[in-house]
């Protein structure tokens, strides 16, 4: 079900696509590549632990890395796919006449956004450990969502649904982590 508000917000963001090379590049960067940077930031914490100078860093942040990666995986490849199995929603470029699609993408299964679920799962996990630093992760997740809508791939409610899946999954999985004493 597509609401009038969903359509209105989609059309506004999608109107930025195809306007200029710069905007198309910015939209595609946010819609595609920014997610890699978010995941790379978490993996960087893991990689740094192999350097002698950062050994203590791993001891302090191994929960963050583990919970972030597990939350990202579960939200994107388990919860999102279960929802999509039962609710196959068409993508905007399939049903909105004149929608500007900036990237190749398969049809259907637009709700919830897997990219948003993954990005918001990582951002929420970071917020449990480093609330101030998580602002950057949440901003990245928001820009990923805006990029996906602007590129014609998702409805705004797909992004909201993905955000709820990601944050909810991170919250639930963080409850299973061992609590530090003292």
Automatic annotation (TrEMBL):
Cellular location(s): Cell membrane
Source superkingdom: Bacteria
SUPFAM superfamilies: Acid phosphatase/Vanadium-dependent haloperoxidase (SSF48317)
GO molecular function, one term: hydrolase activity
Signal peptide start-end: none
Location of the Phosphatidic acid phosphatase type 2/haloperoxidase domain: 65-174
Transmembrane domains' residue ranges: 25-52, 64-87, 107-128, 135-153, 159-176
Keyword line: Cell membrane, Hydrolase, Membrane, Transmembrane, Transmembrane helix
Principal localisation: membrane
Membrane topology field: Multi-pass membrane protein
A GO-annotated cellular component: plasma membrane
InterPro entries, per database record: PAP2/HPO (IPR000326), PAP2/HPO_sf (IPR036938)
Family annotation (Pfam families): PAP2
Listed name of the protein: Phosphatidic acid phosphatase type 2/haloperoxidase domain-containing protein
